[in-house]
Amino acid sequence: MKGTNIELDKRKKKRNLVIGFVVFVTVLITAITATEFVSGLSGKKTDTSKGLEVIRQAEEADVAAIEIKIRKLEERDASGNKETRSLKERFASVVVMGDSITEEFLECDVLNASSVISGVGIEWEEQVEKLKEVNPKVVFMSYCASDILVSEGDTKAYIKQYRKRIDEVQKVLPDASIFVNSLQKVSRTALSEEPQYKKLDEYNEALQEMCDKLQIAFVDNSTLSITQYYEEDGIHFKSAFYPIWAERMAEVASL
Asked: CB atoms < 10 A from the CB of 237, how many?
């Protein structure tokens, strides 16, 4: 279902491109026509026929090409075809970096070992070295709720540390696309036991603001339904949640 939704989104974007292109050409033709009209008033004749013909040909060619692509997408949707590659295949050139929550992508056998670099038992410098060795095209960063406790509710300190991590990733992988996951929610039980988790929304707002400034994609996980997937601590998740989360990242990055 999600794969189909992604294709539909692509189709909508292509249709918007067609509309935008037609509007652009229309405005351009209008401008040339106006120029011709003004030239006529001034007694000087400007030959715009060649320019108009080039524009019309380009319009017909580009619109036709885009419409062919749209038609193919519609045929694919009509046939019911869906994404058939496994998550491991789709994340083959991807690395997910994070903490103990992220490590479960590997423990639950959702992703390959080369696609998961966890902070559990591995110093940050070691993570960066391993990231450099793997050399992925896409990096998802996910340092979750436990980091709120480490930063003692100080969002500025948390963001400062996060930006430092991003800078180091960009330094070793300048051509990689970086995505930052929002912090996952915690259960009501965890919230009652640790009041600092009440600042989760504030942390996510700070993360999104940071991503906007750095022009990095932000993966908003707030729409994921996760209540039924909590482990007893209300922070970690059961194995069934990880394919759902991976699909969310794949959707945002068009994997």
From this structure: 20
